[in-house]
Design brief:
Layout (H helix, E strand, L loop, with lengths): L4 H8 L8 E7 L3 E6 L6 E7 L7 H16 L6 E7 L11 H4 L11 H12 L17 H12 L1
Parallel strand pairs: 3-4
Antiparallel strand pairs: 1-2, 2-3
Length: 153
Amino acid sequence: MVDYSVVKCLYNSNSKYNISVIDFEERLDRICRLRIRGETKNISFLNIDAPTEEKEEETKDIFYEELEMAIDNIPKEDILIVIGDANAKIGSEKIYGEITGEITPQQGQRNKNGLRLIDLAIESDMKIMSTHFERKDVHTQRHLDNTREKHRA
């Protein structure tokens, strides 16, 4: 479940940051939208926490239907940024390279949630940007072992 407390605090506060917040909306308990005023365009952020692969298909269907509706309700002139946890492995098939990028940490593995995310990106004319950039190798066991050795010395 997504924790919206920081976003709500920002939206409800009387601070200088509240001036740029246009709107905040929660959809289900897994999707929220924050719309802020930009210098030339407004920016809509959708923060998501998709159901895991093990959840029932009906639960995932409801989530993706709500996400599609949330995307459809974003004004077309806004910049749209979807952030959060999609609980998806998108794989590294070249056929989806334009959508997913060439750099994927899963090295060929894709799950059903990954396919759902790719389909959504195609239907919504979006790209999955987290796989367009190379990442540091900090979450591997080898890296953790090397870090432990450095701290022991």
